Amino acid sequence: IVTSVRGNSLAGLISIESPLGKAVLGHKVGDRVKIPAGDDGYYVVVKRIDKTTDDSHDTVEKILVKVKKYF
Fold first, then answer.
1. Angle CA(35)–CA(3)–CA(48) in degrees, nearest 5?
2. What is the strand order of the sheet 61-68 is part of?
């Protein structure tokens, strides 16, 4: 999760302003989070959170999510 200036989904950098970024912030490992998208949205599971202390890359948090879409 990075600031909106650094967001680049192709490089795995998700903006805090994106639906995914907004939804997972504040959750903990193991949480199932619904991501609003289209009519139904989809769910992700937070698998890992790495707190960063290096501000040189403008990273807020590194969050690994497992995507599972439910219909």
1. 55
2. 32-35, 42-51, 61-68
Gap between the Cα atoms of 59 and 45, Å rounded: 20
Please tell me the pTM assigned to this model: 0.65
Question: DSSP readout, 24-50?
Answer: HTT--TT-EEEEP-TTT-EEEEEEEEE
Strand partners, 49: 63
- Say what the pLDDT of residue 60 is: 53
Cα angle: 25, vertex 37, 47; to 5 degrees = 40
Angstrom CA distances, 31 to 7, 25, 46, stand at: 23, 11, 6
Q: In whole numbers, what is the pLDDT of the chain averaged over residues?
A: 75
Locus of tokens 């290096």: 54
